[in-house]
Design brief:
The chain is 63% helix and 7% strand. By secondary structure, it is an alpha+beta fold.
Length: 472
């Protein structure tokens, strides 16, 4: 018996036992090896038969469908085994039809493999000698206890490599290549065939199947016991964690209660402060109402003066209402019309009235701006903050309200010059432009303030003029 044949048979023992190596195979093998002699002999016989049937299945796949149709029923006679060999045959045909160079399967390759397999069988290389049962534990040591899927695949590759190297050493390179062929995502053909036939043989043997079932039940019982122990430990740990969480929650609840009590105290203090602030607000509101009534009275007096100077009847029956913006606007337009009429008059007495009316209008506008700034539209001068002051010996009619712009009347005996000082706040402004337009019509003159904020006006003929701020 050659050493290569022993290596091939030992590798197939490990591959056949691999499906039983989950949690029970080690104990199963030890139980069988220490059991009655008839069970030991039966296990060794089942292993040898499974290896032989695996090799014959690969041989039938190599012979093809023509040979298979004549011999399948006579040799195998089982539907599932026929299906397995049919799958191997279909896989080989698919490999042959692809011809992509990865695993070329053609008629020559099949013939070479068949010749090498026949030679190996004649020389006793396959299926090989029967491995004693007491050597099974040594063969399955390549599969570590508790191995995962990756480790199991690596161990299978190692066992298959042992068979591959033994075939190469015996001069069967094509046969070695054939046993490594594997469908996409599946194990190699030899592994699938040997494991299939060994499992079927174990299931068919009542004694071996009973041992397997008993050992599996004992293992399941052991696993359940371990699981229950772990569950008990988990419950105990969970109880300790729950108690710890309850202790923490109790401490946090006490903290929250203290915080809530503190918030209640602060709310009471804030409530008292709000009541005090409400009393102060009421005092301020009373003061504002008082000031409002004073302003209403003052505006009523000013409106009476404006009406008297403009020649209109004094509105004594109805007091001036600050909220009535239409009444304020109408009164302001009436005053502006009366002012324009008297400014354009040649009567010296009416011109004096125009000066007095302008002063009253300025006071009225100033009071309205202070009391109700939102009712008065700002002028261009107010928007820019520019305040011109005319100085030429005559009275200035410029004002800060929305009334008609100021007019400048030179002396009647000939042309006159005048100057304008331009301020923003209390600072003189340079580069500010004004437009001087004759009331009688004509071309406007644009005047610009110098670095000191002064405008030295040109000599102008006698007449009335309108001085307005240009858009900056």
């Amino acid at each position: 018996m050659s050493s290569q044949a022993t290596k091939i048979a030992g590798g197939l023992v490990a591959l056949a036992l691999r499906p039983f190596l989950g949690d029970v195979s080690g104990d199963l093998v030890r139980m069988i090896t220490r059991g009655p002699a008839d069970q030991t002999q039966r296990l060794m016989q089942v292993m040898t038969e499974s290896q032989d049937r695996g090799w014959r299945t690969l041989e039938i796949g190599l012979r093809g469908s023509s040979w298979w149709g004549r011999a399948a029923n006579r040799l195998m006679g089982r539907g599932q085994e026929v299906a397995l060999q049919g799958q191997i045959e279909a896989f080989l045909r698919d490999m042959e039809s692809r011809g992509d160079g990865s695993n070329p399967i053609d008629s020559d390759f099949r013939e070479r493999c068949l010749g090498e397999l026949k030679h190996a069988r004649t020389g006793g290389l396959v299926p090989g000698p029967s491995i004693p049962v007491d050597r099974f534990p040594e063969e399955i040591r390549i599969f570590p206890a508790g191995a995962n899927t990756t480790q199991i695949r690596q161990a299978e590759t190692q066992a298959l490599g042992q068979i591959y190297r033994a075939l190469l050493a015996s001069g069967h390179a094509n046969l070695a290549r054939y046993i490594e062929l594997a469908p996409m995502g599946d194990a190699p053909l030899l592994i699938v065939a040997v494991q299939y036939f060994f499992r079927r043989a174990i299931e068919a043997d009542q004694g071996l199947a009973h041992l397997l079932q008993v050992q599996q039940l004992e293992q399941i019982d052991s696993q359940i016991g371990q699981a229950l122990e772990g569950l008990d430990r988990g419950f105990r740990n969970l109880g300790d964690q729950i108690n710890s969480v309850f202790d923490e929650l109790s401490a946090q609840v006490s903290e929250v209660k203290s915080s809530v009590d503190g918030v209640h105290d602060k709310l009471d203090l804030l409530k008292g402060k709000m009541e005090l602030d409400e009393a102060r607000r009421q005092d301020v509101q009373d003061a504002v109402d008082k000031k409002h009534h004073e302003l209403v009275a003052m505006i009523s007096q000013l409106s009476e003066q404006v009406a008297r100077l403009s020649g209109n009847a004094v509105p004594t029956a109805t007091p001036v209402r600050i909220e009535d913006t239409r009444a304020v606007d109408d009164l302001r337009r009436q005053a502006g019309a009366a002012l324009a009429q008297r400014q354009a008059s040649e009567n010296p007495e009416e011109r004096k009235q125009a000066i007095a009316l302008a002063e009253v209008t300025q006071r009225f506008d100033a009071a309205m701006h202070r009391a109700f700034p939102h009712l008065m539209a700002p002028t261009a001068a107010e928007r820019s903050g520019i305040r011109p002051a005319i100085s030429s010996g005559a009275s200035s009619l410029f004002n800060r309200s929305a009334s008609p712009p100021p007019r400048k009347r030179p002396p009647a005996d000939g042309p006159a010059r005048f100057s304008v000082s331009v301020y923003r706040g209390s600072s003189p402004c340079a580069g500010i432009r004004f437009s001087l337009v004759p009331e009688a019509g004509g071309q406007a003159t644009v005047l610009t303030s110098n670095n000191r904020g002064l405008i030295d006006g040109p000599e102008v003929p006698a007449g009335s003029y309108r001085l307005s701020l240009c858009d900056q």
